[in-house]
Design goal:
This protein is an alpha/beta fold and about 350 residues long. It is built from twelve helices and nine strands.
Length: about 350
């Protein structure tokens, strides 16, 4: 019974505004709740013209306030940008407003470039090198306050908001295992270390008060449409966006193109293809086979899907179809007959 969840960056399509993107995020979350997705996470990025979720805690409140049951959280909060006490207060507030629905995923990257990082936190003494200590400090603020404790998170103390560690390398896998925390790996843009990170995390996991057993959630780019060709067309927006980022020219989400090979060089194609290796793109049948194969190889406890699709209605349809795929994969009796026939076919 592997849950399916959504990672949303509140993408801003070309010609749209951040207000449009934030409305679209809430609309997607409301639909996702009806379609049976488990959680809806938002990511912290700064100085990115195509991403509207920079004030991540605020957007989480916006989404949680417009939904009823789906878990809402950060995928993630970039802790080096913040004082741990501030994050404890923010998520203590969110957990007080929306009990048992808030997740706090933490990353150690700045989520931006060096000049913007300096603008975010002028005291550079705290950086990614202090990440383990910052996580421990943040955890302490969610413990019940001691009688003579001088600094406490209000709200926050005693709430024990679920903390996740996010990562795209082996460092976070080891730290999550050492601390006994659930682990989300960014395989949707950093697939190279995925298998090794999973193995290290599971082999080294130490049970904690929060989590008795290891728990791995894997990121996956997913674009589903009625046909393979239509899905590949929609996916070209993601491919262009990553190419623009590599060119040092990040922008709003571009409209799809029919011939992506006319957009990039062979070297750029190879780079983007490696970055986006963990992707399932195509018709419902094609994506179901791809997701099923991905899960058999990686054995995740949860899948979190993301999709930078230019047209909001197409993005909604993609996640609706993915919700149906997830339901079939969780219920063997309703699995797609094409998929079952393929699996039964002798080599």
């Amino acid at each position: 019974m592997i849950p399916f969840s959504i990672l949303d960056l509140s993408p801003i399509p070309q010609g749209a505004t951040a207000a449009d993107a934030l409305r679209n995020s809430l609309d997607l979350a409301q639909h996702a709740e009806a379609w049976g997705f488990h959680r809806f996470w938002l990511a912290e990025h700064h100085n990115m013209p195509g991403i509207a979720s920079a004030a991540t805690s605020v957007v989480i409140g916006h989404v949680a306030g417009g939904t009823r049951t789906i878990r809402v959280g950060s995928g993630g909060i970039m802790l080096p940008n913040h004082a741990p006490l501030v994050i404890a207060e923010q998520f203590g507030t969110l957990a007080s407003l929306y009990p048992d629905r808030i997740d706090l995923g933490l990353g150690r990257a700045p989520g931006t470039d060096q000049p913007t990082m300096r603008a975010l936190r002028r005291n550079m003494a705290s950086s990614s090198d202090n990440f383990p200590e910052d996580v421990a400090e943040l955890q302490s603020y969610f413990e019940p306050a001691a009688p003579n404790q001088k600094i406490r998170a209000v709200p926050g103390a005693g709430l024990r908001v679920p903390i996740w560690l996010l990562g795209s390398s082996l460092f976070s896998a080891r730290l999550a295992a050492e601390l006994g925390l659930p682990f989300a790996f960014a395989s949707h843009f950093a697939p190279a270390d995925m298998i090794q990170a999973i193995e290290i995390y599971r082999a080294s996991f130490k049970p904690s008060r929060q989590t008795a057993h290891s728990y791995v959630m894997l990121g996956l780019n997913v674009v589903v449409a009625e046909t393979d060709a239509q899905a590949r067309y929609l996916f070209s927006s993601v491919q262009q966006a990553f190419t623009n980022l590599r060119r040092g020219a990040p922008g709003q989400i571009p409209p799809p193109v029919l011939d992506i090979d006319s957009y990039w060089s062979p070297q750029e194609k190879a780079s983007a293809s490696m970055t986006l290796l963990c992707s399932a793109v195509g018709s419902p049948e094609t994506v179901e086979r791809a997701v099923d194969s991905f899960m058999k190889v990686t054995q995740p406890d949860e899948i979190i899907a993301t999709a930078h699709i230019y047209d909001h209605s197409a993005r909604l349809r993609s996640f609706e179809l993915l919700g149906e795929i997830g339901a079939r994969l969780r219920s063997p009796d309703t699995r797609n007959p094409v998929l079952l026939a393929s699996a039964a076919r002798p080599e």
